[in-house]
Amino acid sequence: MADADEVFEIVDEQDRVIGRAPRRLCHGNPALVHRTAHVVVFAPDGRMLLQKRGRRKDIQPGKWDTAVGGHLAVGESYEEAARREMHEEIGVEPTLPLTFLFDCRIRNEVESENVRVFSLIHPGPFAPLADEIEELRFWSAEEVRTALGTGQFTPNLEREIEALRPRGWLPPGVRVGE
Predict the structure, then answer these.
(1) What is the DSSP pairing of strand 33-42 with strand 48-53?
(2) pTM confidence score
(3) Band of the pLDDT at 105, cuts 50, 70, 90?
(4) What residues contact 12, with CB distance under 8 A and at least 6 apart?
């Protein structure tokens, strides 16, 4: 489980580090902008891997989310964090090729994050981190399409899905949100 005293770098609107704050303050104070890396994982046939967040998570417990996501450690780059998190969370070798997709900003009443999103094509097997992930499975485009807007997904995942569709970065056969 995440440590409430874990320290995040605080950044300005240009993503420049301007300070540090503990996780417990960042999650609850949207003025403390911090950084996160996500990895969208696809099966070779185009299905999207999603994780069901553990019930003890401090943000969006029990909801389906991006396969891999985590905060940057102090001094860590987005790509370093993505590689570390994919190894820690789902047991994927950190040397596998990642593709940069896009940057986005998450701003809500609970937190503010700058997110860099990468993708990986990997068939599994996976070794989900039991303390953080309740379930891990591939979803077809139709399953994703049906679940959008029902409250099963985190708001951040819904935003990522919408950002992926028009950019044409989905593997063949994946057309979500249409």
Answers:
(1) antiparallel
(2) 0.89
(3) very high
(4) 18, 33
Containing 147, the helix (H) or strand (E) segment is helix 141-147
Which whole number is the average pLDDT over 107-124?
A: 93
The residues spanned by each domain of the chain are 7-166
Read off the pLDDT of residues 20-37 as tens digits, 9 standing for 90 and up: 999 999 988 999 999 999
In degrees and rounded to multiples of 5, residue 131 shows phi and psi of: -70, -20
| CATH 3.90.79.10, applies to 7-166 | yes
Residue 75 has pLDDT above 80, yes or no: yes
Residue 165 is classified by DSSP as H
What DSSP state is assigned to residue 2?
Answer: -
6-12 CB contacts, 8 Å cutoff, 24+ apart: 6/71, 7/74, 8/32, 8/34, 8/35, 8/71, 8/72, 8/74, 9/34, 9/35, 9/72, 9/74, 9/75, 10/34, 11/35, 11/114
Query: CB 131: neighbour CB atoms within 10 A?
Result: 10
- Distance between CA atoms of residues 145 and 161, nearest Å: 10
Output the pLDDT for position 5: 79
- Per-position b or e across 13-30, b if 16+ CB within 10 A of its CB: eeeeeeeeeebeebbeee
